[in-house]
């Protein structure tokens, strides 16, 4: 191989290393977001008598929308995706 080939190979290797090192940071940020869902949904569903379905849908909505409205009821304007996700019948999907 020539010196030019080695230089190109070295540059591509460095580029791949930088790319994959940033992917680890992105993966860690995504995991942190999902770990926040359970405590937020536990509080959100604390006032209902239907805790199991509330937790199921709250965590599903949190994973998609990456937020949970404050409080135990209402306040959905604080999380537009959570507010706008509807069932086939047009009812709110998220508690």
Gist of the model:
This protein has 95 residues and is mainly α.
Structure in words:
The chain is an all-alpha fold. The protein has one domain. The protein is 65% helix and 0% strand. It is built from three helices and no strands. Helix 1 packs antiparallel against helix 2. The longest helix has 42 residues. The radius of gyration is 22 Å and the shape is elongated. The chain starts with a helix and ends in an 11-residue tail after the last helix. This is Protein RSI-1. Pfam families: GASA (PF02704). Belongs to the GASA family. Keywords: Signal.
What characteristics describe this protein?
95 residues, mainly alpha, 3 helices
Kindly state the number of beta strands: 0
Please tell me what the overall shape is: elongated
Q: From N to C, what is the helix and strand string?
A: HHH
* N→C terminal distance: 63 Å
**What ranges have pLDDT less than 50 throughout 5 or more consecutive residues?**
26-32
The major β-sheet equals: none
Instruction: Determine Rg (CA atoms, Å).
Output: 22 Å
What is the residue-averaged pLDDT? Answer: 81
């Amino acid at each position: 191989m020539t010196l030019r080939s080695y230089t190109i190979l070295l540059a591509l290797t460095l580029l791949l290393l930088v790319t994959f090192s940033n992917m680890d940071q992105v993966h860690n940020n995504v995991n942190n977001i999902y770990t926040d869902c359970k405590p937020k949904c536990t509080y959100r569903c604390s006032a209902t008598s239907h805790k199991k379905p509330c937790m199921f849908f709250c965590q599903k909505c949190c994973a998609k929308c990456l937020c949970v409205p404050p409080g135990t009821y209402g306040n959905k304007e604080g999380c537009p995706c959570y507010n706008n996700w509807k069932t086939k019948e047009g009812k709110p999907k998220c508690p």
